[in-house]
Amino acid sequence: MLNTILTMKKSLSIALFLFVTAIGFSQTTVTLQDQCNCEVLSGTDVTTPGATTPTGAEVGDIYVNTNTGNIFYWDGDSWEASSVNGVDGADGNGINGTVNNGDGTYTFNYTDGSSFTTSNLTGPAGADGAQGPQGLPGADGADGAQGPQGLPGADGAQGPQGLPGADGADGAQGPQGLPGADGADGAQGPQGLPGADGADGAQGPQGLPGADGADGAQGPAGPQGLPG
After folding, report:
1. Is 74 exposed, middle or buried (0-12, 13-18, 19+ CB in 10 A)?
2. Sequence-distant (≥ 6) Cβ neighbours of residue 35 within 8 angstroms
3. By the 8 A CB rule, do 103 and 120 touch?
4. What's the predicted TM-score (pTM) here?
């Protein structure tokens, strides 16, 4: 039992040293419970060593008196002194500010003008988590610029013939085409009705005198004339 208590006191002392050292040099919040792997109680019930209340603690649990700052540990029967406040020490070197260097390191600037840069504190990347539910669709974005025209696709199957459209207006008559070759003569049709006489044409020029004709037969003698 004595060895267990001595070992526990040594571990508790080391834990308290690490706790105070961590506060003095890095101002990192480290709880006493994290250091000693025990339950830490606090209040004003325990003021002197040998107190037996509060009860229900396990060996190694810590009690911090919030008025005096004194720390006690439970040895299985009572709360025993682990530390008492001593004389205030000299003021420590405080931290004036911290800088995130953007590469996983941090620089601590102290009140005395000195500084300290940590090593890269970036841990390894964790495994991808399960995909969450799909979110609500966002608002439509503005139309982008039209891209270049793609290659023409293959011709699709011909669709059914549509209904005939209304006749359009007649277009202008085109130029007369070249005459075609004469076709074969058709059969003669029936004679048509005689047409009306046309107007007399103008008299043509007198023709050339014709050749003399043959002498005609002698005619009968005429009556005798009056005596002179």
Report:
1. buried
2. 15, 16, 18, 19
3. yes
4. 0.28
Percent of the chain with pLDDT over 70: 80
pLDDT for residue 169 is more than 60: yes
Average per-residue pLDDT in the chain?
81
DSSP state string for 19-53: HHHHHHHH-----HHHHHTS-EEEESS--STTB--
> How far are the Cα atoms of 12, 41, 61, 83, 89 from residue 71, in angstroms, in the given order?
10, 10, 11, 5, 18
Alpha-carbon distance of 23 to 46, in angstroms, equals 25
70, 84 contact by CB (below 8 A)? yes
Residue 74: name the closest of 58, 86, 88 by CA. 58
Closest CA to 99 of 108, 86, 89: 108
Confidence of residue 161 (pLDDT cuts 50, 70, 90): very high
Pairwise pLDDT comparison (227 vs 176), residue with the higher score: 176
Average pLDDT over residues 81-103: 79
Residue 80 phi, psi (nearest 5): -115, 155
DSSP letters of 49-81?
Answer: TTB--S----TT-EEEETTT--EEEE-SSSEEE
pLDDT score, position 126: 84
**Cβ-contact 69, 85 below 8 angstroms:** yes
